[in-house]
Amino acid sequence: MLSTSSPRRFSGFPLFNPVQQKLQQRKLQRRSLQVQQQQQQQLQLQEVEQRKIQQQQQQEKEKQLQQDKEQDRQEQAALTGPKKKKPIRQAIGIIITDSKTGKVLLLTSRKREGALVLPRGDRNDDAQETSEEAVIRILYEEAGIRIINQSPKRLGTYTEGNKRGKIIAHHWMYEFSDAKLIQSIPPRKLITNAEGEQVEQKQRELVWVPYNEALAATLDRPMSHLALKSSSFGST
């Protein structure tokens, strides 16, 4: 006879539940994602700490470099002594006038093409040169001129300052009026050109111009312009 009893379950084998399996998989996925995020955060923190360490090391290197430079500077100063102040420049300017023609002697400029300037130069204080001696030397070196039997008349001394108000030069201005001139060709100085070659300095030309033209030519040279106004032509 056929048995009508209910089917038996096999012991030791749990029943398959697909819903529970999906939940378990999702739980595992979430946990895996959390672990990955935690690992990524740890890596980011490590990178931040590493950058901080590198920055600190760089700052320490720069600080040490500055300290080394300062130490070198102090040692160099101890060897060479205190830094010498730059001496104030003593510039000489010469005005030569001819009352018969009403003209002033100017020279062609070496630096500016077509410009006319007064004979000028610097006093040689290292050689203990006086301003009057410098006038004679500069006239010969710059213009090839020697003055016969006349001493220069001092027009005045003008002070030049920089933008900070510090004095950087004294301009000693002199005049020869109706002087007897002897012109010669002075020895040319050797200068270095743009190609680095030693060449003779170009000879300057002497140009007699009316007093008003001399004033106009020196508008961009305040000391020369002031001296011209103080000359025998300017006082008439």
UniProtKB/TrEMBL annotation:
Matching InterPro entries: NUDIX_hydrolase-like_dom_sf, NUDIX_hydrolase_dom
Show the coiled coil region(s). Answer: none
Q: Which organism is it from?
A: Phascolomyces articulosus
The record's listing under Gene3D superfamilies reads: Nucleoside Triphosphate Pyrophosphohydrolase
What the entry lists under SUPFAM superfamilies is as follows:
Nudix
Q: Region Disordered: start and end of each range?
A: 60-85
Q: What is this protein called?
A: Nudix hydrolase domain-containing protein
In terms of Pfam families, this protein maps to: NUDIX
Domain (Nudix hydrolase): residue spans on this chain: 87-235
Spell out the Basic and acidic residues composition-biased ranges.
Answer: 60-75
